[in-house]
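Hi V.,

Quick status before I head out on leave. The structure for the redesign project is tokenized and pasted below; the design run finished overnight.
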């Protein structure tokens, strides 16, 4: 067997295994199938034991790179043993005809536990059939052992020819590592590849690899700060380090990336950072593969906590162990970005010296610089800002901030050399710079720019400047929130919030945010709004409530930025209340005047209301894709208009009874083409809450729907329509009323795969329920969505009619499905208040969401003889907050402490899953309102 370059005897006793396998092969000489059968269990056991040893060492000693090297060594041993058996006992004629080499990551001598085995079999130009059979024998045994083997069988000449046109093949050959067999073939390939392919093609290779990297980042969303990152392919992941390795090896003609220090490309400290990042990412990746038993590259919520524990992270005040682990992960991903910038800067510098006449993609390396108006410290190099001389930052550290200001002002990209020098000059940003009036003026100009403030802020953050200039911001850089609601780290969320504000400020998104785009024109203090949006979550990760702590940070930071005392207090108030409008809109009955008056008392002025609405919209939109929808926008607009009316003194002083009577008359008048009898009958069907909260247009449509159902003698009926702007579909249900109706409808929607985002639930004066259910839209085309909604409507009718039994149909849908949110601990909570409404008792529950919850809660409330007047369903990822406005069956609040305790206990048991209510099937919450306003109980 070939002598392996690096040995890890703690993983496998290669001498003993080789001797055992050789003996087995000799015992079945001449019978290839029998040799396979004899070897397979022995080799599989060795592979399993070797991986178990590597895992044990990883968990006890750490060292991700060493783990990957141990597994690579193990694989080398198995392949070398197979090759020896093949050429000695199965196909001896193939001796000297095959070189087995590793390519890809395996070619670098690293292998993750679940990764594919990439092999290149090198053969002579005209290899005999027996040689090809020998290759097949090795491959079939590897496949039978359970490995996924990516392989190619080529001659040296074929490798050279194909690598000319195919950059993927060229990269694979670049990483070729000899394992066993005829070494001269591998040496010939290496020699010819270097002389015939690599020489003078460095710029071409670099351009291809960087373009490949950029496309990979684009597909992944071009951010390293997603909370479930791809450790291999994501931005700041292992593939980015591999790209640096490929380019180093190809362009600098080196075999060990440590030589980059000798070449002056990286400093010794940066090289150590490279090694630390590589080792950490490999440790995470190996743990992922071991835990999942497969080549899992996405660091999902399900395994983050386990990996945090395996890596030894402990919880600290304000941050759990998994949040500390993920913060470290994102800081490492940021380090990878820093190294990439430094490396690319060195490449450009070297290529500019070596190949000044290049054109095309590499023409940017030519040194043609132009002056930038208003500065002598910076110049433009092909659309990118760079330093006029090396001591620009040392001479005046405020120039670090000025660099970004000028880039934003002139719409320039950043030269890698400029960013490299920024990264190496961060220590110059000291307290004097932070307190500098000029530095703070420049920063506010960047933040409030009419161009692309978020882009510049992101570059500042990636370069480490934002955290150095604002130490409070540094604490939330790369901070992850361990939940399913937030898609990004806290710093990325804040920058995306500014990005959304900038879009609104430019008048963009009027179709999606019509009110915000209108109100931004009335904002006089743009600076205060931009500052509030940038730092509204700056106190995340502290023990104190982040809104209250954030207001304290604002009172410290704003004067430093140059804001007046009045502006400072406005920013502090906006931060302290930045969740209030969203929570009120989504969890309170907006037709209950107490909810509006309580909110108005907090806001107090129209200016604050306008700014708070815009901040709320930016905050929600920056949480992640799909979090904002038209339904949430409608809730916020409703709250805004109701509060604006009250703050401006225009809140109606006409009594509720008078307004209801006027609405009833308006409905009567709108049915002018009906008979007098029908006009009287259908305009008198509804109670005050319906008449006061449902638009006249919808009242007329409902009246037509009810009359048509009556003519057809339908006791159960549904109708559907779509709302493309709100991204919801509406299903209206007419049914005899009964206490569990909400629960039954919710379960029927669940079976049909529909997520309820809201509903209006009313009782008519003749004892029927008129329920309008809003579900998430699924299809872009109305025709497809109408067909889906009609199917759901029929399902609701069948369940209500009793032709289908809900528990069985739901069980068939949910059977065998694992909940996605099992990794998240949410402490169940129940609160009961008689002060949030003048007429109703308000019950609020908070717990981990799950299939069946909405149906189970509403069924439990019905069992408790409570009349649900309205309900508001809000989901934040894995956590649900449901608010129910209830009375007892006589219409009174629940004042008895004993009864309140009984309600609390019952709801806690439902949330814990210990109950006899409807079993799995109600829809997972996706946010919205259910409002029932009538005399019948639900």
């Amino acid at each position: 067997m070939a002598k392996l370059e690096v040995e890890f005897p703690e993983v496998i006793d290669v001498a003993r295994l080789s001797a055992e396998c050789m003996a087995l092969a000799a015992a079945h000489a001449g019978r290839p199938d029998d040799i396979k059968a004899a070897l397979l269990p022995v080799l599989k056991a060795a592979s399993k034991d070797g991986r178990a040893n590597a895992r044990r060492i990883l968990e006890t000693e750490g060292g991700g790179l060493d783990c990957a090297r141990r597994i690579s060594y193990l694989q080398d041993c198995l392949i070398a043993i197979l090759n020896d058996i093949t050429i000695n006992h199965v196909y001896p004629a193939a001796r000297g005809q095959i070189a087995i080499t590793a390519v890809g990551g395996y070619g670098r001598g690293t292998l993750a536990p679940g990764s594919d085995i990439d092999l290149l079999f090198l053969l002579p130009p005209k290899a005999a059939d027996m040689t090809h059979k020998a290759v097949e024998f090795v491959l079939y045994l590897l496949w039978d052992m359970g490995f996924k083997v990516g392989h190619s069988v080529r001659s040296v000449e074929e490798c050279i020819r194909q690598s000319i046109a195919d950059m993927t093949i060229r990269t694979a050959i670049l990483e070729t590592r000899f394992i066993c067999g005829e070494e001269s073939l591998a040496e010939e390939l290496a020699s010819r590849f270097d002389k015939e392919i690599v020489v003078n093609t460095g710029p071409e290779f670099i351009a291809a690899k960087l373009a490949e990297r950029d496309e990979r980042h684009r597909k992944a969303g071009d951010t390293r700060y997603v909370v479930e990152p791809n450790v291999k392919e994501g931005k700041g992941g292992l593939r980015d380090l591999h790209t640096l390795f490929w380019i180093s090896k190809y362009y600098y003609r080196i075999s060990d990336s440590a030589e980059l220090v000798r070449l002056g490309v990286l400093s010794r400290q940066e090289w150590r950072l490279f090694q630390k990042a590589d080792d950490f990412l490999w440790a995470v990746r190996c743990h992922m593969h071991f835990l999942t038993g497969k080549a899992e590259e996405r660091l999902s919520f399900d395994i983050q906590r386990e990996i945090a524990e395996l890596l030894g992270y402990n919880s600290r005040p304000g941050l759990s162990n998994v949040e500390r682990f993920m913060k470290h992960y994102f800081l490492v991903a940021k380090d990878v970005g820093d190294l990439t910038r430094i490396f690319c800067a060195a490449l450009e510098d070297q290529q500019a010296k070596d190949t000044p006449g290049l054109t095309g993609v590499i023409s940017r390396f030519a040194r043609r610089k132009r002056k930038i108006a208003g500065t002598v410290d910076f110049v433009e190099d092909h659309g990118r800002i760079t330093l006029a001389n090396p001591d620009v930052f040392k001479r005046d550290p405020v120039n670090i901030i000025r660099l970004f200001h000028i880039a934003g002002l002139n719409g320039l990209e950043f030269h890698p050399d400029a960013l490299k020098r920024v990264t190496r000059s961060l220590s110059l940003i000291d307290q004097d710079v932070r307190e500098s009036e000029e530095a703070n003026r420049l920063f506010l100009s960047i933040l409030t720019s009419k161009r692309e403030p978020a882009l510049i802020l992101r570059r500042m953050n990636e370069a480490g400047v934002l955290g150095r200039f604002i130490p409070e911001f540094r604490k939330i850089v790369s901070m992850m929130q361990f939940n399913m609601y937030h898609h990004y780290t806290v710093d990325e969320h804040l920058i995306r919030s500014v990005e959304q504000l900038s879009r609104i400020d430019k008048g963009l998104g009027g179709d999606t945010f019509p009110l915000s785009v209108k109100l931004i024109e009335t904002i006089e203090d743009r600076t205060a709004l931009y500052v509030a949006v940038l730092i509204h979550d700056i106190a995340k990760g502290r023990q104190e409530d982040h809104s209250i702590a954030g207001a304290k940070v604002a009172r410290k930071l704003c004067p430093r930025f140059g804001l007046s005392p009045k502006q400072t207090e406005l920013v502090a108030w906006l931060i302290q209340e930045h969740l209030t409008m969203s929570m009120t809109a989504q969890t309170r009955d907006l037709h209950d005047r107490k909810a509006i008056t309580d909110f108005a008392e907090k806001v107090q002025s129209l200016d604050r209301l306008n700014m708070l609405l815009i901040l709320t919209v930016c905050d929600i939109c920056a949480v992640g894709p799909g979090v904002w929808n038209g339904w949430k926008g409608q809730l916020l607009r409703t709250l805004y208009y109701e509060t604006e009316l009250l703050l401006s003194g225009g809140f109606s002083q006409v009594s509720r009874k008078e307004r209801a009577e006027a609405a009833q008359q308006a409905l009567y008048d709108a049915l002018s083409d009906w008979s007098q009898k029908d006009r009287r009958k259908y305009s008198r069907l509804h109670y005050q809450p319906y008449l006061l909260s449902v638009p006249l247009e919808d009242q007329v449509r409902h009246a037509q729907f009810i009359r048509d159902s009556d003519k057809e003698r339908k006791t159960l009926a549904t109708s559907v329509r779509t709302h493309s702007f709100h991204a919801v579909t509406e299903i209206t249900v007419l049914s005899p009323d009964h206490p569990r109706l909400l629960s039954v409808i919710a379960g029927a929607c669940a079976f049909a795969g529909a997520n309820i985002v809201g509903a209006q639930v009313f009782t008519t004066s003749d004892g029927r329920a008129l329920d309008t259910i809003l579900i998430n839209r699924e299809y872009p085309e109305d025709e497809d969505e109408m067909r889906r909604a009609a199917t759901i409507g029929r399902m609701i009718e069948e369940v209500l009619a009793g032709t289908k039994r809900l528990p069985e149909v739901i069980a068939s849908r949910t059977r065998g499905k694992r909940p996605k949110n099992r990794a998240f601990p949410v402490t169940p909570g129940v609160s009961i208040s008689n002060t949030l409404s003048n007429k109703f008792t308000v019950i609020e529950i908070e717990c981990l969401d799950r299939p069946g919850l909405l149906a189970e809660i509403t069924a439990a409330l019905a069992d408790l003889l409570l009349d649900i007047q309205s309900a508001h369903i809000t989901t934040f990822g894995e956590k649900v907050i449901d608010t129910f406005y209830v009375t007892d069956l006589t219409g009174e609040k629940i004042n008895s402490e004993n009864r309140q305790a009984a309600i609390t206990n019952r709801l806690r048991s439902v949330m814990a899953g210990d109950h006899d209510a409807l079993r799995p099937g109600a829809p997972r919450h996706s946010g919205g309102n259910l409002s029932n306003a009538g005399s019948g109980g639900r």
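Above is the designed sequence. The chain has six domains: 14-196, 204-363, 368-469, 491-651, 666-814, 829-933.

G. will cover questions while I'm gone.

Best,
W.
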